[in-house]
Amino acid sequence: MTIKIRRTEPGDYEAVQRILAGPKAVWGTLQLPFPSVEQWRKRLAEPAESLFSLSACVENDEVVGQLGLQTFPDRPRRRHAGQIGMAVRDDWQGKGVGAALMKAAIDLADNWLNLTRLELEVFADNTSAVRLYEKCGFTIEGTLASYGFRDGQYADAYIMARLRGPKPSAGS
User: Fold this and answer.
1) What's the whole-model pTM score?
2) Domain ranges of the chain
3) How far apart are CA 17 and CA 30, in angstroms?
4) Pairing of strands 81-88, 117-123
5) In the prediction, which pLDDT does 60 show?
6) Most exposed: 88, 96, 103, 119, by fewest CB within 10 Å?
7) Mean pLDDT, to the nearest integer, of 32-58?
8) pLDDT tens profile 141-154
9) In contact, 57 and 96? CB cutoff 8 Å
10) What are phi and psi of 127, to 5 degrees?
11) Residue 65: its pLDDT value, please?
């Protein structure tokens, strides 16, 4: 099976909505259940210039995963950083889609956008996602207690980051 990564197009809105409507995707992200198709149509129609959205496609260009890389060009002290959010359709989880999206995002960040810090938040009990991010060079920087309300209770999250290049020393 080949997974192709491409830029998300406005016409992908129904596929993206389907990804984020899945129970596993709702559980693993901060998205609410029952996402609106119209909301996703509007979001993808005119994305911010600072957002790079990638789609993972299989067989006949079927979109099964989506990743957003938010940059901060208007924030001088954060221009070096990007924030990642990702979801994979429930029936495609565990099949390499997330890894392919992360590889493409890291290549974009390192080799084209010159970002030196990539960051993300992930629910602490989402062990498969944490393992994937660690394989991609991310480390846990801290725990955000009661970060998100999910399924009737609060859940902790990790803040994870991947740094490229020399790390600044303390006090410099």
Assistant:
1) 0.91
2) 4-163
3) 14
4) parallel
5) 87
6) 103
7) 93
8) 999 999 999 999 99
9) no
10) -60, -35
11) 98
User: Are the CB atoms for 140 and 123 separated by under 8 Å?
Assistant: no
Residue 108 is encoded by which pair of tokens? 């974009």
Q: What is the DSSP string of the chain?
A: ---EEEE--GGGHHHHHHHHHSHHHHHHSSPPSS--HHHHHHHHHS--TTEEEEEEEETTTEEEEEEEEEE-TT-GGGTTEEEEEEEE-GGGTTTTHHHHHHHHHHHHHHHTS--SEEEEEEETT-HHHHHHHHHTT-EEEEEEEEEEEETTEEEEEEEEEEE-SPPPPTT-
Task: Return the sign of the alpha-carbon dihedral for residues 107, 162, 17, 38.
Answer: negative
Confidence band for 125, pLDDT divided at 50, 70 and 90? very high
CA angle 65–27–45, rounded 5-degree value: 45
* Residue with the two structure tokens 């016409």: 11
pLDDT band at 168 (very low <50, low <70, confident <90, very high): low
Matching residue, tokens 């991609």: 136
**Burial class of residue 130, CB neighbours in 10 A (0-12, 13-18, 19+):** middle
Looking at the structure, give the CATH architecture of the domain made up of residues 4-163.
3-Layer(aba) Sandwich (3.40)
